[in-house]
Design the sequence.
């Protein structure tokens, strides 16, 4: 794709990188075929190719900010388009650059909700307090918020053992509050197999939420703090393990995020290199598992942050099948469920449409359980599913 950045604009490293990404797009449109939002609206500007054109115009200072913002806000950042693109266009990174230029602020109700989310969600203590407070008054709150209030609110935990083998398990901000069973169950599984589990009590948000909201400065502040906390553990643990694929994909991206930071580049790269999704770790471990419910039919939903962001997904299917589960056929497995970080709250109508489509696909094979790998997908799907939705780790014995 041709670009018209001036030499002065290209002096900005972000613009230079955007230019490089834009030039790799041959505007073939293959990506539109797998874009969930394009499939919903049929609008070229709600597909990756149209958004790439909008971002090019916007970044060269010739675009319409309101229109670009509207269509970028409707993008899930699911990165299905990256998986499909034959030219290797780094769409997610381009969207991140454009969102940073747009900034996190919005007018009216959306702006207020975005500020509340950014203040509450990345801080588990605040999130726990707000959820406990909101629960009795949930009937007063708008539906996009009430559907995200979990039945029980969990607390963080720290497990420390002195075994020969040891991993560091990321707590995750939302996961430790909404679905604490996931990490508890994994800890039991690993301890039984001689692997000690530690957590970092001072762990902070990985930065994913603020990146989604276009507040890169806040995201990098969180990420720096996390690097300071996690780096000292690297020599004493085999790996940093993430059970929430939305956090894992961000921590694995720390090397790219800090590549130009002389103070943090080396440590960020080391933390990223040591981070694995739990499915990678278990797949490499050679451990054998059995099903917690023998011969049960399970529908597997691979979160976008796992299948597109980390290019994983088949690992989980193999582990569940080896354990004895029967995996049902799920049509269009590449499509997002609509959770997508804060998307289910900020773009509730489209998120619900995507969830209904996803649940139709997941439940078509008549499963007894739905399994997934990210707290956001789990909560979002569970709010509309008549079938229990679990993190896949909970299904292993
Ligand atoms: S598939 Fe890739 S190269 Fe083709 S339009 Fe989409 S982003 Fe551009
Ligand atoms: S990230 Fe997802 S929603 Fe956004 S343009 Fe790509 S495929 Fe479409």
Sequence:
């Amino acid at each position: 794709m041709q670009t018209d950045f001036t030499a002065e604009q290209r002096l900005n490293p972000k613009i230079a990188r955007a230019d490089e990404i834009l030039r790799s797009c041959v505007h073939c449109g293959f990506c539109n075929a797998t874009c969930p939002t394009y499939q919903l609206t049929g609008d070229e500007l709600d597909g990756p190719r149209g958004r790439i054109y909008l971002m090019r115009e916007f970044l060269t200072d010739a675009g319409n900010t309101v229109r670009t913002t509207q269509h970028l806000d409707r993008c899930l950042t699911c990165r299905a388009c990256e998986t499909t693109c034959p030219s290797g266009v780094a769409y997610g990174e381009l969207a991140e650059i454009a969102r940073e230029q747009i900034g996190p602020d919005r007018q009216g109700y959306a702006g207020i909700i975005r500020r509340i989310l950014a203040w509450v969600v990345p801080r588990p203590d605040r999130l726990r307090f707000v959820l406990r407070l909101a629960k009795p008054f949930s009937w007063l709150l708008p539906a996009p918020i009430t559907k995200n209030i979990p039945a029980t609110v969990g607390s963080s935990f720290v497990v420390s053992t002195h075994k020969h083998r040891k991993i560091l398990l990321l707590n995750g901000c939302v996961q430790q509050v909404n679905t604490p069973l996931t990490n508890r169950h994994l800890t039991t599984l690993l301890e039984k197999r001689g692997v000690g589990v530690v957590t970092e009590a001072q762990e902070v948000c990985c930065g994913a939420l603020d990146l989604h909201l276009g507040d890169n400065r806040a995201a990098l502040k969180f990420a720096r703090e996390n690097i300071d906390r996690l780096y000292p553990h690297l020599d004493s643990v085999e790996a940093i393990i993430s059970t929430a694929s939305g956090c894992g994909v961000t921590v694995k991206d720390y090397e790219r995020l800090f590549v130009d930071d002389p103070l943090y580049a080396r440590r960020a790269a080391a933390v990223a290199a040591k981070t694995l999704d739990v499915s990678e770790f278990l797949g490499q471990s050679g451990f054998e598992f059995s099903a917690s419910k023998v011969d049960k039919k399970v529908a597997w939903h691979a979160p976008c942050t796992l299948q597109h962001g980390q290019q994983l997904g088949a690992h989980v299917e193999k582990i569940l099948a080896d354990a004895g589960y029967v995996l049902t056929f799920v049509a269009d497995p590449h499509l997002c469920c609509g959770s997508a970080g804060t998307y289910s709250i900020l773009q509730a109508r489209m998120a619900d449409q995507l969830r209904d489509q996803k649940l139709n696909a997941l439940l078509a094979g008549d499963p007894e359980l739905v399994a997934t790998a990210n707290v956001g997908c789990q909560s979002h799907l569970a709010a509309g599913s008549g079938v229990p939705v679990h993190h896949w780790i909970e299904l292993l014995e």
